Amino acid sequence: MEPLGGAEFAPKQTYLNTSACALLPRRTVEAVTLLAEETAAGRPDGAGSFDIVDEARASFARLAHIGADRVAVGSSVSVHVGMVAQSMPAGAEILFPEGDFSSVITPFTVRGDLKIRFVPLELLAESVRPETALVAFSAVQSADGRTADFAAVRAAAAAHGARTLLDATQSAGWLPLYAADWDFTVAGGYKYLLCPRGASFLTVTEEAQDALLPIHAGWVTGEELWVNSYGPVRELARSARRFDEPAAFLSYHGAARSLALLEEVGIERIEAHNKALAARFRAGLIELGHHPVADESTVVGVPGLGGRADALREAGVLLSARAGNLRASFHLYNSSADVERALEIIAG
């Protein structure tokens, strides 16, 4: 299999580490560089364009199958999750999978007045109960690539009246996202969405919006953008834009170009490409006597091999070690040759 994306990518090593950070497309680098140079020269319209931020918002909305009015922009997952956490009533029960990513969990645990429960990922749906206020979990586990049972969790939450928070950081960009199925979704942009770090997205259903406190509200969150510079904001945006953080323009000028590329290539095409590479890698590992985590995810965890990451890096193959696992993660810019090179080094 050959890479997707044409001349947009030019890795100089075997890069299987998108779950840590994506390669930036050429067009994204050009957009960020152009804005930086314009700003250095004295850009007439300030440090960046709100119109381009809205281009990124709209592009993400299309990728997430939800209206752009349901998307807020920000800088990181933990900031978005923190807003959800601060909006929960004291004593509310929050249900997580054991070992999920810290940024999904910690904004809730630091409250000190919430009831926190952890259960194995495979028991998440059946562990929802009438007392559960929110089920918060990652679509794909960062540590080992396991994929949650979306339908089961959604059905269990609905049956018990619990809200849902899905972290799509390890899935958005290769796995179709239907954000309207969840009360809240969050996604860091710098992994499979190919964005510069500093771009992230929050989706909020219209029904869930009233339960969310806009703790980052400022002049950019007003219904009318340019009339709220001084004094209290007269009226918050009626859309999810009321939950925006002030956008980091360099990141979002790049994000708009990256998300456009994903739309051009197509998420379904990327999904098939990534899964095929991951399946070949798993099969090769099994042939070598290893036992990768069983899943169809593009993120492949191999228990007990985390200690090999440094040796692979020295051989020009970039992967990660996470929770004792060797973690390989495939994306559109990878090829069959990348898989075979990694297997060759692991085989020794």
Question: Could you give the topology of this structure?
Answer:
Elements: E1 14-15, H1 26-41, H2 50-63, E2 71-74, H3 77-87, E3 93-97, H4 102-109, E4 115-119, E5 132-138, H5 150-160, E6 163-167, E7 184-188, E8 200-204, H6 206-209, H7 249-265, H8 267-287, E9 299-303, H9 309-314, E10 317-318, E11 320-322, E12 325-329, H10 336-347
Helix pairs in contact: 1-7, 2-7, 3-4, 8-10
Oligomer: single chain
Main sheet characteristics: 7 strands, mixed
The CATH architecture of the largest domain is: 3-Layer(aba) Sandwich
**Termini, distance in Å?**
24 Å
Rg from C-alpha positions?
21 Å
Instruction: Give the number of helices.
Output: 10
Spatial strand order of the main sheet: 2-8-7-6-5-3-4
Low-pLDDT stretches are none
In the CATH scheme, the class of the largest domain would be Alpha Beta
- What name is given to the CATH topology of the largest domain? Aspartate Aminotransferase, domain 2
Structure description:
InterPro entries: Aminotrans_V_dom (IPR000192), PyrdxlP-dep_Trfase (IPR015424), PyrdxlP-dep_Trfase_major (IPR015421), PyrdxlP-dep_Trfase_small (IPR015422). It is built from ten helices and twelve strands. The chain has helices spanning 26-41, 50-63, 77-87, 102-109, 150-160, 206-209, 249-265, 267-287, 309-314, 336-347, and strands at residues 14-15, 71-74, 93-97, 115-119, 132-138, 163-167, 184-188, 200-204, 299-303, 317-318, 320-322, 325-329. A seven-stranded mixed beta sheet has the order 2-8-7-6-5-3-4, sandwiched between helices. A three-stranded antiparallel beta sheet has the order 9-12-11, covered by helices on one side. The longest helix has 21 residues, at 267-287. It is globular. 49% of the residues are buried. The model has no long low-confidence stretch (mean pLDDT 97).
